[in-house]
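Hi X.,

You mentioned you wanted examples for the new student's onboarding notes, showing what a folding record looks like when two proteins sit in one file. Here is a clean example. The first protein comes first, with its sequence line followed by its structure tokens.
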Amino acid sequence: MKTSDFDFDLPPELIAQFPTQERSQSRLLHLDGANGELADEQFSDLPKFLKPGDLLVFNDTRVIKARLFGVKDSGGKLEVLIERLLDEHHALAHIRASHAPKPGSGLLLAGEIAATVEERQGELYRLRFAGETPLLELLEQYGSLPLPPYITHAPEALDETRYQTVYARQPGAVAAPTAGLHFDPAMLETLEKMGVKIAYVTLHVGAGTFQPVRVEEIAEHHMHSEWYTVPQRTVDLIRLARAEGGRVMAVGTTSLRALESASAGGELEAGSGETNIFIFPGYRFRVVERLLTNFHLPRSTLLMLVSAFGGMENIRRAYRHAVENRYRFFSYGDAMLIERQQ
């Protein structure tokens, strides 16, 4: 299977640069994977696709202010993007500079934060931050929101609210789980009053989510690793939903990846760990019957995932339909509800 099988032409003006005025104002494209039928809906219509006993699984990760600008001790400018918090004073980070910093070299970030490059780990650098203030507090004070590379404006106050789900509570992501951005408190309340159950997983989305697949044979691609947690309560709610005839919907590809990672042994089990699960057509899903997601980048692993879930030809046709009908794409764009093909 080729990466070029997952390419498509996307007019740049369809890449949403700002969110809709209200979270739930976005459009919703419904795809029935079993028969390939498409229907144009509004996200506010989501409750009509659900019934009492159904279960929605959300990713409750919280985006951190992971981007910092500064200088090396040599005077050269650089940009640091924190990829993962290791503890209160250490992190793995991407560094963009004219010359890569060497182990042992010092950095001054935001004019206030002293850090040392301890070592390089592949494309990342392990950094140690000086002082007693926890790194998360430093980032909140001095960092900036890491908007995706296809959003061209600098982060604004609106982004700090809207590039975050209303239920975010576990800090650690450098990219938002964007399917969840459509939900507002009123929608969540409506669903709960209907008898729809809600559960959470945590997967700290890394910057690798925006990376294109750089090999033509997708089997040769190596996924970036991310940290996830699936609580026992979520496992119990999934088992209960199945026992009572409810359907399990993953809200976002990150929720789906966490659940599928936690069921790699054949049965869904609670726990935490690293996952580099790569889902592409041919994968057999174990947990989720329905997927709520946004529209994804050409040649991306996320487009491969939704193609595995909804069927390659179905997704191709759905994306052509979305382009022709001027749906908004990517993080601040419209949503898609996919019923699993198999």
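Then the second protein repeats the pattern, sequence line and then tokens:
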Amino acid sequence: MVAPTPVVGLRREREVLTVALATGRHVVLEGPPGTGKSTLLRSIAADTGQEVVFVEGNAELTPARLIGQFDPSQVLAEGYRPEHFVDGPLITAMRRGGLLYMEELNRVPEETLNVLITVLTEGEIAVPRLGAVVAGKDFRLIAAMNPFDAVGTARVSQAIADRMCRVVLGYQDVEGEREITESVSGLSGRWVDLSVHLTRATREHRDVRMGSSVRGAIDLSLVLTGLAALRGEPDPGRDTAQDAAYAALSGRIRVADGVDRTPESVIDELLDRLWPADPTESDADAPDAEGKGDSPPGSTPPGFQPRSRPGRERAQRTQGRQQLAQQHPAFADVSPDVGELSAEAFDAAVAE
């Protein structure tokens, strides 16, 4: 059996969620991907011994799929009888008094969400031809959703929001994400540090609307070390780090609207800051260049460092017409007015 992902940090959020469930409240967990919403719920459910019924929220989740429906073949043979009803995840959780965990709440059609209003208020639901189904005393709805501005999301109606508590989860600090990455990947050391710092940097880049979660750091550390082993590198080289970063992070980065660049170009820029390319890498065989470009500086990436960008250096300040006239006596003849140029005067000045 795979060991569950540990809950790192989130002490306050865990306490709030635990008390909310114990006092009969329904809760929505809000936060970007990879902030531990599912992990937190699984941990609490394991502690309380409650069953968790999962349902994935999307545009295809209809009321019938959420509630359940009669088996058509049995209905044709024997009519509408209670034993012919196939429970959906909502009815299953209600009958068993378990936790219904609905992911991506704000991607579910409003028609389907409206089914939950009576359940959240009265603890029961009336199903046509089946009758009323009353929820067990420990039934709770735990919903998770990304922030509203995420692609494909919509605002949850006030009728639903007014019947649920809301717990907001954010990204862990750097120490927390390092601990998570080490625990899940089984790795430690400078390559985990590089993976965590590079992943976190994607969330702060000016051209990125949404960066990678800690899942990117986990994947990056595993792909990086595995790729180095495949290539026979004692320590991953910079090209290997670039290939691994492309694989682990490029699909998780969403470039801001209107920005004409690729996720790979963002990764290149961030990697340059954390692990600058060695300009003398071609001379790596020279005695005084041994080890250059083979590992990031220090055991921990230093973070963002200023660097020069060819072709993007700050230009020198331009001079005004008055200054040019003082320096060049023929300037007034060459350019009588702004935007004007006398070709004859210019040729004469050049000839002098």
